[in-house]
Amino acid sequence: MTVPRRRTASEQVSVALLDAAETVLDRDGAAAVTVRAVAREAGVAPMGVYNRFSSKDGLLAALAIRAFDDLAAAIDVGPEGGPADRLHRACRGYRRFALSHPARYTLIFDVGSPAADPASPVTARGREVFAVLVDMVRGLTLRRGLDPLHAAQALWNGQHGAVTLELAGVVQTPDAAATFDQTIDVVIRGLQTPRA
Amino acid sequence: MTVPRRRTASEQVSVALLDAAETVLDRDGAAAVTVRAVAREAGVAPMGVYNRFSSKDGLLAALAIRAFDDLAAAIDVGPEGGPADRLHRACRGYRRFALSHPARYTLIFDVGSPAADPASPVTARGREVFAVLVDMVRGLTLRRGLDPLHAAQALWNGQHGAVTLELAGVVQTPDAAATFDQTIDVVIRGLQTPRA
Q1: Domain B8-54 has CATH 3.40.30
Q2: Pfam families, from UniProt (chains A, B) (predicted)?
Q3: Above 80 in pLDDT, residue A138?
Q4: Is domain A65-191 given the CATH code 1.10.357.10 in the classification?
Q5: Between chains, do B183 and A146 touch, taking CB under 8 Å as contact?
Q6: In this complex, which of A112, A153, A168 lies closest to B171 when CB atoms are compared?
Q7: What Rg, from alpha-carbon coordinates, does chain A have?
Q8: Mutate which of B172, B179, B182 to test chain A, going by most A C-beta atoms within 10 A?
Q9: What share of chain A is helix, strand, coil (3-state, %, to 5)?
Q10: Which residue among A2, A53, A196, B52 has the highest number of C-beta atoms inside a 10 angstrom radius?
Q11: Cβ–Cβ of B158/A153 closer than 8 Å?
């Protein structure tokens, strides 16, 4: 009988502490993710959290990397379908992630994000996830003057704007889900060379 | 000799208190705009603020209305130029407002905005400013299936996403101003019937 490799005891503790930190983040927001609050949530001494994550910034960086991992999974739509169809599905996954985990979404993309620091590993991970979008955009026949990087940024702008206004509750159209799809459709059409 | 109508003493006090509240907002963010902090900033007794604005929510509502007035002025581009050109200029004014006054912008469009409450006068004022964008969009030859309301929301999503990612410092392209213009161009093209 074989057993899958199990996490070491030390790894298990790190995961348990990060789970506790995520619980605090989801419930109380990024400002509440302190070494002390995470220790309380996990039922350990503050030193146990401090030894692994050093500080609030260390905790938020680890949470942000995890959030980018989750976002990467949410926009992973597989190889099926044409490029526009795949982008639509990826964008819907992106919206689901944002609406399901607003505090994680805010952590990585709002003012104060660890991904704004060029030297942070969070920024490198964010760039990798953005590269997935860039690669998907490469499948489109882009309008002259547009490269995949700028095209992907335009698409990201559209979807980020749509989900953040939805989260804020200030969208001016009656059906936010339909409006999101419509925005993605408008941007994808605008990115491409018009069909004859 | 005629003189323009001058504000009454009471109006002058209200304006002075709102100026003080705006100073607190711009410097310390919406959470810091309390009756006590505004009184301190204005050099009056808290009762003087309380009598006019009742509460923190009353202060934030008055500030949000003023922010919408400023935004309306920022996107007012006059009648010159074609519809796409006017929209581009209005969007550039929108970006300038957001970047110059990030706390005011966040107050009206982020989570916690008074404009999320359907019963608030702030929401009515926000709807009026959005209607300016809807009217400008009416000048475009919209793609079949798109009405001006949904087209304006798509454009708003694009520009809101662009400026909020810029404010957060996480844009993936080197020139945020150029990327903003490009996003607006992509959306405006995506909204319109393709030229033959």
Answers
A1: no
A2: TetR_C_33, TetR_N
A3: yes
A4: yes
A5: no
A6: A153
A7: 19
A8: B172
A9: 70, 0, 25
A10: A53
A11: no
